[in-house]
Amino acid sequence: MSLFAMGFLLVILQPSTGQFPRACANTQSLLRKECCPPWDGDGSPCGELSSRGSCQNILLSQAPLGPQFPFSGVDDREDWPSVFFNRTCKCEGNFMGFNCGECKFGFAGLNCTERRLRMRRNIFQLTTSEKDKFLAYLNLAKNTPSEDYVIATGTYTQMNNGSNPMFRNINVYDLFVWMHYYASRDTLLGGSNVWRDIDFAHEAPGFLPWHRVFLLMWEREIQKITGDENFTIPYWDWRDAEDCVVCTDEYMGGRHPTNPNLLSPASFFFSWQVICTRSEEYNSQQALCNATSEGPILRNPGNNDKSRTPRLPSSAEVEFCLSLTQYESGSMDKMANYSFRNTLEGFADPRTAISNISQSGLHNALHIYMNGSMSQVQGSANDPIFLLHHAFVDSIFERWLRRHRPMLEVYPAANAPIGHNRENYMVPFIPLYRNGEFFKPSRELGYDYEYLQEPALDSFQEFLIPYLEQARQIWAWLVGAAVIGGIVTAVLTGLILACRKKRRGTSSEIQPLLIETEDYNNISYQSNF
């Protein structure tokens, strides 16, 4: 696209919208650009009367972005959420939420002072009743309207800059499908033009923190609609799997007997309808997905393009990925080499860490292998296997954090693709979360993984690995230091013996006490590392 065409498009663009707290989906909030709903506990905005929080101006990151997105002011997701709101609730202490009415992840209790640690477990380690409860919760989420959130059905321009709100209700499960679509969709440039090289949740440093927040919010919503405060998402450990072992009617749905692209009629999910899967249609209409049903879940595991993804990922590939010491590198996108993030996401070869976008490894491999709804980025969360898969991907991220113990500064502060700098707010979450806030161990966020708890020896080994790696990198210096130290010790020993011999030849009347001051000052102890 020419620069002239880009400039022309800037004039005719229609920005797009995000997901909103129901309490802020009204003319008054949009015109005031303020989303500071009252907390039910005291009726004050952000629970200010109870010292839970206060309504404050949003502070946006001014750090420079990477070159991948050459526009400015053409997409409502830029500098999220400033197109819609420039004031939101800033919560104090352990309080959280769009009105400071909830506790931060990992805390509970009336005043959010109680520490909680929940355990995510292997789906095959659940009892039959636990597994059935999980499936029932999924169905409940698919059939329960969200009390707290609505989605936008028109662009900000179509809303006349807030004077004509356009929103609709959505069920809890589809709310998260829509958010995943919204974060990864193309930028609409007017006419039939779009910009595809943009994604606020993938292909850049924020991939892992974004999905970490996504799963935590999903767990929180299930906990709210079920009253089960201990609910966690189970994971599927797909390392070395021969096929899709969760693709049975007992678990996530078997294969249809006559149409291999559909789920079995006996599955919990046979009647589910997908949303947000027709990206080309939305692009041609310069419209957003409005959560209209678009047909059944599609899945045909293993009948994918074998030249791109020949098999499911192996344990060796995961271990190689974990050995990478750099979280991010180079261009910080899908072309990055030796990047842990890019290798785990699947754009770099899991045996060399060299970018190879013609192949799909690790995280991407699972999506391609499913050969259906999960294989298209924007609509992939329609298939509930998405949750099991990303819980396990998050556990690999967690293993890397524990092994390498990175400082927050390891996460890029600047020059990452749009939306992915450390201090950028994640699209489209309200309440607001910064990428860097979730670049830390899961225990600090109130959850852990069952398989990371045992055996104890493995945990000890993972604790030692970063130190052993550092030692390996500087072993030559250590050997050199040892040699120099040995030489210095030998010289000192020789001097001491010579002094003792001299002392024995000196009468007690004239022998000095240790060393005269002027002699002491002339002795030089020096070693060069």
Could you list some keywords that capture this structure?
mainly alpha; globular; di-copper center containing domain from catechol oxidase; three-stranded antiparallel sheet; single chain; 529 residues; 14 strands; disordered C terminus; disordered N terminus
Structure description:
- This protein has 529 residues and is mainly α.
- The chain has a domain at 118-149 and 171-443: Di-copper center containing domain from catechol oxidase (di-copper center containing domain from catechol oxidase), CATH 1.10.1280.
- It contains 13 helices and 14 strands.
- The chain has helices at 3-12, 27-32, 128-142, 172-184, 207-226, 279-285, 315-323, 340-345, 362-370, 385-404, 456-473, 475-504, 517-521; strands at 19-21, 34-35, 53-57, 87-91, 95-96, 102-103, 107-108, 114-115, 118-120, 149-152, 167-168, 187-188, 194-195, 447-449.
- It has a three-stranded antiparallel beta sheet with strand order 1-10-11. Strands 2-4-3 form a three-stranded mixed beta sheet. A two-stranded antiparallel ribbon has the order 5-6.
- Helix 4 (172-184) runs antiparallel to helix 5, helix 5 (207-226) crosses helix 10 (385-404) and helix 10 crosses helix 11.
- The radius of gyration is 29 Å and the shape is globular.
- The two termini are 56 Å apart.
- This is Tyrosinase.
- Belongs to the tyrosinase family.
